């Protein structure tokens, strides 16, 4: 039987705002999009944490490759990459959503954070919203 043991969600930006873009730094620098804390009790050895992140982005200059990473307690556990174009005759705003599953997490309270960084030189992309990050911990 599956049982929910914790659920946390953050939405630091709830809607698109093209008037206040936040630049995405180039690697090795990054920007923290959101963070949550998930608690795993001592009696939940067989568990997993489903993490879902969504970020609204805008291409500013050329085509950027944005690298997203999820960390648990400072250790990288997941990465995904997405291209963001800036051609005004095409798409310039994007919603990127991805999911990661962290299995058999040890007991205790864990901090998860999702970051973004631009890995393409001489390009620019920005966060325009929305941003959300959620974690659902279940005992299997």
pLDDT average, as an integer?
A: 96
Number of helices: 0
| Low-pLDDT runs | none
Strand percentage, roughly?
A: over 45%
Shape: elongated
The biggest sheet, with number of strands, parallel, antiparallel or mixed sense and barrel status, is: 5 strands, antiparallel
Strand pairing plus helix content: what structural class? mainly beta
Report the count of strand segments.
9
First and last CA, distance? 6 Å
User: What's the oligomerization state?
Assistant: single chain
Helix content: under 10%
Protein name: Exosporium protein C
Organism: Cytobacillus citreus
Report on the architecture of this protein:
It comes from Cytobacillus citreus. This is Exosporium protein C. By secondary structure, the chain is an all-beta fold. It is 0% helix and 68% strand. The chain is built from no helices and nine strands. The protein has strands at 3-13, 22-23, 31-40, 47-61, 64-72, 75-84, 93-103, 108-118, 124-139. Strands 1, 2, 4, 7 and 9 form a five-stranded antiparallel beta sheet that branches. Strand 5 and strand 6 (75-84) form a beta hairpin.
């Amino acid at each position: 039987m599956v049982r929910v043991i914790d659920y946390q969600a953050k939405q630091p930006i709830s809607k698109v705002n093209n008037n206040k873009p936040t630049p995405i730094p180039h690697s090795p620098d990054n920007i923290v999009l959101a963070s949550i804390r998930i608690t795993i009790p001592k009696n939940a050895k067989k568990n997993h944490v489903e993490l879902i992140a969504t970020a609204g982005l805008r291409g500013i200059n050329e085509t950027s490759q944005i690298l997203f990473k999820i960390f648990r307690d400072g250790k990288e556990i997941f990465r995904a990459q997405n291209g963001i174009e800036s051609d005004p005759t095409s798409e310039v705003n994007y919603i990127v959503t991805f999911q990661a599953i962290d299995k058999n997490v040890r007991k205790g309270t864990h901090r998860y954070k999702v970051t973004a960084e631009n890995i393409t030189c001489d390009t620019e992309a920005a966060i325009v919203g929305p941003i959300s990050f959620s974690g659902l911990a279940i005992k299997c």
